[in-house]
Automatic annotation (TrEMBL):
SUPFAM superfamilies in the cross-refs: NAD(P)-binding Rossmann-fold domains
Pfam short name (any one): adh_short
Signal peptide span: none
GO cellular component assignments: membrane
Organism per entry: Azospirillum argentinense
Entry protein name: KR domain-containing protein
Family assignment from sequence similarity: Belongs to the short-chain dehydrogenases/reductases (SDR) family.
Lineage: Bacteria, Pseudomonadati, Pseudomonadota, Alphaproteobacteria, Rhodospirillales
EC category: oxidoreductase
CDD domains from the UniProt entry: SDR_c
InterPro entries assigned: NAD(P)-bd_dom_sf (IPR036291), Sc_DH/Rdtase_CS (IPR020904), SDR_fam (IPR002347)
Keyword Nucleotide-binding: no
PANTHER family in the cross-refs: DEHYDROGENASE/REDUCTASE SDR FAMILY MEMBER 7B, DEHYDROGENASE_REDUCTASE SDR FAMILY MEMBER 7B
Superkingdom assignment: Bacteria
This protein's UniProt keywords: Oxidoreductase
Length: 236
């Protein structure tokens, strides 16, 4: 039996990087995956890879997470089609730009907070009941070491991930008596577009690849998982 057989999973930021790697791994483990991202071409590439491996197609949802009302609409659509959601992987995140706090562009600051914090709040708000309707709902949020290690010029990203961790841990405490299990994953240093944006001269072939961290997500998504309210290192 595949580890996620018969499960339905929504993955944000699934057009590339860690999101695409997790989507392909979940599908290989038997899950039906709902893929959300802004880039339609990237979603189609992930879907093609899933079909080549499994013979099954994913459900594709072009979505800008800053359009918060559309998150609610997606929740309603999933309810109409599936009646529940077994797994949520909130992977999408943005860095935008590095710079000193005193000179940071307010529009970029707001974008980082919208995607990395507020969109996650809206996902929780929209999918809580659907995840509780599963016999073993699992919600996984992607954080970063930047949440706990201040570093010059990383203030917006670090602050957003610190806020995310506080929100998710609080949510985990609030639903502790339910069948829903909620955790965060810190992927560590991985060859992604966000990492390249921050360190453009880095040799990404020497870094962990997105496929290398997918196992941590599978383990937290399984119905047998008992971890709750934790930050789990994907490479530790």
């Amino acid at each position: 039996m595949s580890r996620l057989s018969g499960r339905t999973a929504l993955i944000t930021g699934a057009s590339r990087g860690i999101g695409a790697a997790v989507a392909k791994r979940f599908a290989a483990e038997g899950a039906h995956v709902i893929l959300a991202a802004r880039t339609v071409g990237g979603l189609e590439e992930t879907d093609d890879a899933i079909f080549q491996t499994t013979g099954r197609n994913a459900t594709l949802v072009p979505l800008d997470l800053r359009q918060f009302d559309k998150i609610d609409q997606l929740g309603y659509s999933i309810f109409e089609r599936f009646g529940k959601l077994d797994i949520l992987v909130s992977n999408a995140g943005v860095l935008e730009a590095l710079g000193p706090v005193a000179h940071y562009d307010p529009k970029l600051w707001q974008r980082v907070m919208d995607v990395n914090v507020t969109a996650n709040f809206r996902l929780i708000r929209s999918f809580d009941r659907l995840l509780r309707a599963s016999d073993a709902g699992r919600a996984i949020f992607v954080t970063s070491g930047a949440a706990n290690a201040p570093y010059p010029y990383w203030s917006p990203y670090g602050a957003s991930k610190a806020a995310l961790e506080m929100m998710v841990k609080t949510y985990a405490m609030e639903i502790a008596s339910s069948n829903l299990r909620v955790n965060l994953v810190d992927p560590g240093i991985v060859a992604t577009k966000l990492r390249m944006q921050a360190f453009p001269g880095e040799d990404q072939t020497k870094l962990a690849q997105p496929d290398d961290v997918a196992e941590a997500f599978v383990a937290l998504a399984e119905a047998s998982c008992t971890r709750h309210g934790e930050v789990v290192s994907a490479q530790g």
